[in-house]
Every structure is written in C-alpha cells, then in structure tokens.
Amino acid sequence: xxxxWAGYALTWIAMAWFVWRLERRARDAARRLQRTGPGVDxxxxxxx
Amino acid sequence: xxxWLRTWAILWKDILIEVRTKGTFNAMAFFAxxxxxxxxxxxxxxxxxxxxxxxGLLWVGITFTGLLxxxxxxxxxxLAGGLExxxxxxxxxxxxxxxxxxxxxxxxxxxxxxxxPVAAVLFHMxxxxxxxxxxxxxxxxxxxxxxxxxxxSALTLHLRAREVMLPLLVLPLLVxxxxxxxxxxxxxxxxxxxxxxxxxxxxxxxxxxLYFVVCTWTFPVLLER
Amino acid sequence: xxxxxxxxxxxxxxxxxxxxxxxxTVSGSVVALFLVPPDALQGQVxxxxxxxxxxxxxxxxxxxxxxxxSVLYLIQRDPRWDMVAASSAEIGVLFTALTLALGSLxxxxxxxxxxxxxxxxxxxAILLVIYxxxxxxxxxxxxxxxxxxxxxxxxxxxxxxxxxxxxSVTWWRSxxxxxxxxxxxxxxxxxxxxxxxxxxxxxxxYLLLRRYRVAVxxxxxxxxxxxx
Amino acid sequence: MGQxxxxxxxxxxxxxGTPALRLGGAGKRFARNWGLRDVDLEVGPGELVAxxxxxxxxxxxxxxxxxALHRAxxxxxxxxxxxxxxxxxxxxERSTLLPPHGYVYEQLTGxxxxxxxxxxxxxxxxxxxxxxxxxxxxxxxxxxxxxxxxGGYSSGMRKRLAIARLLLRPVELVLMDEPYASLDxxxxxxxxxxxxxxxxxxxxxxxxxxxxxxxxxxxxxxxVMERGRITWMGSPGEWAGRPAGxxxx
Lengths: 48, 225, 228, 249
Fold this sequence. Notes:
The structure holds four protein chains of four kinds. By secondary structure, chain B is mainly α. Chain B is 83% helix and 0% strand. In chain B, helix 6 (94-122) packs across helix 7 (131-156). Chain B is globular. The model of chain B has no long low-confidence stretch (mean pLDDT 91). Chain C is mainly alpha-helical. Chain C has one domain (8-225). In chain C, helix 3 (79-111) packs parallel to helix 5 and helix 4 packs antiparallel against helix 5 (144-174). The longest helix of chain C is centred in the last third of the chain and has 41 residues, at 187-227. The mean pLDDT of chain C is 87. Chain D has one domain (19-240): P-loop containing nucleotide triphosphate hydrolases (Rossmann fold). Chain D is built from eight helices and ten strands. In chain D, strands 6-7-8-3-9-10 form a six-stranded mixed sheet, with helices on both faces. A four-stranded antiparallel sheet of chain D has the order 2-1-4-5. Classes of the chains: A mainly alpha, B mainly alpha, C mainly alpha, D alpha/beta.
C-alpha cells in the first residue's frame, strides 16, 4: 500500500510544483512587461 | 530532369572531396576498428556468447561511426561559407537532401563492407549462406539511419552544442532501426534466436519509406534562413 | 512581428477551469484511493493504475497537440501555433516523467523490478527522449523564428516515431517475455479510471492555457529586447 | 499578421514597367538584433544602384533577401515581379548574387567549381558547357590556374572565380556584394568592364561596396545605409552637392 501512497503523493506534488513554477514565471513576465513599457496584457504603466 | 542533375552535382562534388581528403572515411574506419577490438577484449573469448550478441555489437559500432559521418554531411559547405553555397542556384531544394543522402549512404555502406567481415571473424558469426540477406538487412537499416542523420544534421548545423544535439535527436528514431536490423540479422545467423525475419524486414521497409517521405517533404523548411 | 494577444474574456475563464480541474482531480483521487474496491488479482497496488494510465494518456495527448500545432505552424507560420506547441511540450514532459515514475512504482511490487521493457513503458521512455530533444532545440536556437521552425520539424518527425517504436518494442519483447498482465475491466474500475482521465485532461487544458499566456508574455519581452 | 504585411508606398524613383525590385517595410531579425529595419526601396529595370555604408549597416542582409537566400522577417519583398518568399525559386532563376568571399569549394579545382555550378543550375555537362566554362575562366584570367585546387588560390583569384561563375548565367538582376574587395587594379577594372557590359545588356544591378567613390561613378542612384536603415538616397549629383554631414558614409 505504501507504493500507492507514494504514487499519489508524487502525482499531487508534481502537479502542484508545476503550477507553482508556472505562476511564478507568469508573475515575473508580467512584472518585466510593466517595467519595459505598456504591454499587450499588462495594465498601462507610467513610462519609466 | 534538372532535379537529378542537381542531385548528381552534390553527389559528384562530395565524392570528389571525400576521395581527395578522405576526411570522413579515415575517422570512421579507425573508430569502427577501435570499437570492435574493445568489444572483443571487453567481452572475452566466449565464442558462444559472442556469436549470440554479434549482430548487436556490430550495430553499436555502425551507430557510433555512422554518427561521425552524418555530423560531417555539410562540412564542405561550412568550409565554403555556409549552406548559401548551395542556395545560390535555382531548382528543387530537395535535390540537396537526395544528393547528401546518397552520399552518406555510400560512405556508411563502404565502412560496413569492411566492418561486417572483420566482425564475422572476431565474433565467429556464421555468415556462410546468409551473406546476401544479411547484406540486404544492413542496407535497409543503413538507409533509414542515413535518412534521419542527413535530415537532422541539416537542422543541428546552426545549433549550439550540435555534437550533443544530433545524437539526441537521432536516438529515438534509431530504436526501430536498431531493433529491426539487429533482430533480423540475429534471426538469420543465430539458430537459437526465435522470431521471423520477415516481420522485422517489413518493419524496416515501413520505417525507411515513411521517413524518406516525411524528411524529403519537410527538408526545404530546414534550408530557410 | 505580429502581436499575438489573449482576449480579456479568456483571462477570467481560466480561474473557473482551474477550479473545476482541482475539484475533479481531488474527487478522482479520493474515489481511487478509498471508495473503489481493490482488485482481486493485484490487490491495493492496482490503485496506482488510476493515476498511471491517465498520466500516460495525457503524455501522448500533449505530444499529439505538439504535432498538430507544429504542422499548423509550418503551413501558416503564425507564432501563436508555435507557442501552443511549446506550452504543450513542457506539460507533456511533466506527464511523461510522471507516467514513468508511476510505472516503476507499480512495477516494483508487481514484478519485483523498478524497470521492465514493457512495450508501453519503453515507448513512454522514448517519448520522453523526443520531448527532451524538442525542448533542447528550443532552448539552443536563439532566433524566435528559427526556433519555431526547427522545433516544429522535430515535433512532426518525433511524433511519427512513436507508433513505430511501440510496434518494434512490442515485437521485440514478444520474442523474450509473454505480454504484461491484462488489466481488470470491472465497471467500478472503468468509472474510476474515466473520472481520473477526465480530471487529468482538465488539468492539462488548464496548464496549457496558463503556460500559453506565459509564452505570449515572454515572447513579447523577447521582441522588445530586440527592438532596443 | 505574419511576415506579409501591407506594402507601404516606396519613395524611390521607379523606371517604366514593373520595378525590378520593390521593398516595402522590409526587416530582418537575427535573434536579438535587427540586421535590417523597415527598409523601403524601389529599383527600376536597367537601373544601377550603389549601396554603401559602414560595416553591419545591412547591405549584405539586404542583398541576401533580394536574392532569396534569406527571408525577410517583416514587410514585403517583390523581385522581378515575383513575391518573396512564395516565388523564391523564380527569383533565384532570374537573379544572381556575387558574394564577398566567393562560396567556393577549396578541395575542388577552379574548373570543377564551375562544373559544379553548371550542374547545380540544372545544365547538362555537354562540350558546349565546357567551352562556356573555359570562356568564363579566360575572361577572368584563371584559365592557367583552372586545374589547380582553389585551396591554393589567392583571395583575389577566388573572387575572380566567383565572377567567372556569375558570367556563366546571364540574368536580369545582378547583386554584387563588395565586388572590388581583395582585387588588384586589373581586377577592379575587370569588374567595371563587366558592370558596363551587364548594363548594356539591360540588367538591373545592385552593387554594395565600402568604396562608394568607386561605386558611385556609374550609379544612377546612391543609397546610404546605417544600422539596418536607409539614411540617405539620391542621384550621384545630389550626393556631390549635399550639405556636410547629411547621410555621412
């Protein structure tokens, strides 16, 4: 049974890690977009 | 048809350069001999074992020496200043792929023509009576290998770390070729190996036809700059 | 340089998709772990199949999406198809690696070994190598247009390889070992499996949407860097 | 929108009939920098346009795009009435590029290089082809070195070999990238001679060169490029009378 727990834990951790990494990348990209001027998605930022 | 003239142009040029410089051939011949001898010493004189795995050892040798040759497919163009040396002229771009493919196929088959007899001696392969079918399988396997190698060496030519990229991209495509060639050859020369030669030969032919069509069709995409 | 943008309507929508995916996955796991009875033959370890099989299904689905987007890109040369392909490939690697890990976790108690040359598992391993090759080409090509074109070619050539690898490995294996044990088809098993396949597919679409938006933003940054 | 944007109105003077060459907002991106950016240019049939500017100005990039060796990332390119990149084979048939460093195979002899060029252009290797090759080699003064490997050629001889290859294929649009580079005095005169013949034959010529004072002598128009853009364009007369510093080459 321990293998089953390991399997499910691994599945959940893998998915959570991927989502977490994805959200971090999305935030970084959005921040850098703001800093380099008004972007396609980013809200209008004051010019640098 | 001018496409065949262009294919012949590339083949003629590459043969001329290879005969003069022997750059690819020397590297391959030495490397192949090295691999076979290392196998012999590493695996030891157990003839029964050697005979059983001979086909596998042979194709490990062919794969590594083959990758050496395939990585040099566009070497002469690089020295001349880039693929533009071939794009200067009008005409079907796929002729470039065909010319390079046949060139690679010939180089590989020449090296194999030396490799097989040496391996037969070293690994006590009973090729007697099976020479033609074994050769046929070798050609089928080498053709598939050359199609993928000639194709992907055009892609990796301008990539960073291309010495790693070519084997990495070719590896997954080599699985059916190696399985097919080794299993078919083993089924022929090693009485203990079960499994029909016919099935494996059909797989190799299917692989060769499919990838020849796919690679020839998409090749011009690799020439765009 | 075309300006691929994501319509505002789409952005709110992904939170709902994310929530639905989460709920379905949680319920899928709960059902698989606690509610469905263990299989008579394999016992508890059979519950691993409820995640192993959906993960494998997603690994191949993701690569099919890469293939379709690659073909579309070569025909239309629209950067959006390339970005969808790249996003799907990255998610595909996640599911492929997961499938292999779960496969060995399942293999150890069932066959006593971490790795078996079972045709399905071997094909999944080869699929992983194709994915790695695809992503390596993308990271080593600096020019965005070239990266899109070359990775599209790898996506197409790689995809055609999967069925042939499966066929050749199955033949090769049938020479040495009987085919792996068949899975039980009890209705409870089938429903639980379907639920988890649905859950994983929802997760895939959610991740694809999110990863695509990141790809759009990063491509925009790259274009701006080149403007300078 | 991809790379086939709308053609913007070009500013150059256009000759009668369809222009030999029209670039509308053409741009070429190499990874992180733009080799060519938003270039508008129109060249009439039979015109000789000199292209000049410092290193990296985009001259070579522009020539490679026009000769269909490279594809433009943005904007529209029309050469001899054919739209690129769709009809690139037609363009390659009716135009040719003289590259600065020749694209020649060192392991082959001069003669073999030209035989390869003929075969690659889809021409059967007949005795007549052989005579054509000999004539071209003679014209550039390489007949004596025909059977020596190009590896042993000087850079001037390699350039002459590239010129011989150009003579093999009479075309409507001739693109020359630094034709005078690595040539001695006699070689430079040879280039001028050939340029004269090509003009007499009605070919359109685009000639990129650092040595603008040489290139401008026969040019109908001079185009000055800097950092991927056209910074000045006009007739040689205007160039002579331009205020100091405008479009400094």
